[in-house]
Amino acid sequence: MSPARMGVLVMLLAMFLFSLNDAMGKWLVSTYSVGQVLLLRSAVALLILLPFLWKAGLRPILSAERPWLQFMRVVFSTAEVFCFYWAVYYLPLADVMTYWLAAPIYVAALSPILLKEKVGPVRWAAIALGFVGVLVALTPSGEINFIALGAALVGTLAFALMMITGRSLRGTPDTTLVLFQLGGALVAGLVLTPFSWTTPTAPDFLLLGALGVVAMVAHIGVNRAVKLADAATIAPLQYTLLPWAIILGYLFFGDLPRPLTLLGAAIILASSFIIYLRENRAKTELGAAQPEPG
């Protein structure tokens, strides 16, 4: 099997694991507080990360670039995961995943302001189309919990800001970024858990631990996939999160997405794919414009 094909298979598996992780999280927050889920999930994930940190040593951590920006990224990542678990407690998994898939649209809209990146008319049109998709997906019904909906929107924006700050921290090793991210969630869990601790049953304790294991394996899978295949092949596969969210949401919770949610999701995916194609084309043109070495 070619490396590119192996990369596709690994990425598809990673997306399934992320979807499974989200379904497990929704199941657990119906019994345990979001803070407790964050605490145990992050603690187990950090234990898995320790061998990689040991191998890399302390230098990448102690000499991490731009500490203030690192801190802001941790704040955004912690807010994102907290809001996600809060939202899936009240809303169907597919609905929440639809809102989260809009994050690349927010990134494209904010990048001219925060990263001074140039955005052309085609991408601005795609951004506008994406926001139409978000509005369609957000069309309320009598069953919508507006507080949870607000949490979903805040979480999506936090996710986009986490992605933007990550772009500015390209020199930081992946293990260091993941360590800071997990550390922020662990601290949030430590602060929140004493107010809402529920002693887990043995099966639930294993499931809470598995939440961290599945998330870490999924992250490792994505990192491996991008090394086996090029980004143009790998990136669109992230949209398989939505069909998995629909399937797992129905199997585990009996949730069926609203027709308007599906329509909004289709518009969001079309917008995100246009943005991706334009960014990929811009990178290709930039590479072609670079003089040959020597």
* β-strand amount: under 5%
Q: Tally the helices.
A: 13
Envelope shape: globular
Protein structure class: mainly alpha
* Euclidean distance between termini CA atoms: 36 Å
Task: Describe the oligomeric state of these chains in a short phrase.
Answer: single chain
Radius of gyration: 19 Å
Percent helix range: over 70%
Low-confidence stretches: 289-294
- Biggest β-sheet description: none
Mean pLDDT: 82
What are the secondary-structure elements, in order, as H or E?
HHHHHHHHHHHHH
- Overall number of strands: 0
- Number of domains in the coordinates? 1
Secondary structure topology:
Elements lengths: L2 H27 L4 H23 L2 H4 L4 H24 L2 H8 L2 H12 L6 H17 L8 H22 L6 H19 L9 H27 L2 H4 L6 H13 L5 H31 L5
Helix pairs in contact: 1-4, 1-10, 1-12, 2-9, 2-10, 4-8, 4-9, 5-12, 5-13, 6-7, 6-8, 7-13
Describe this structure in words.
The chain is mainly alpha-helical and about 290 residues long. The protein has one domain. It has helices at about 5-30, 35-55, 60, 65-90, 95-100, 105-115, 120-135, 145-165, 175-190, 200-230, 230-235, 240-255, 260-290. The longest helix has about 30 residues, at about 260-290. About 40% of the residues are buried.
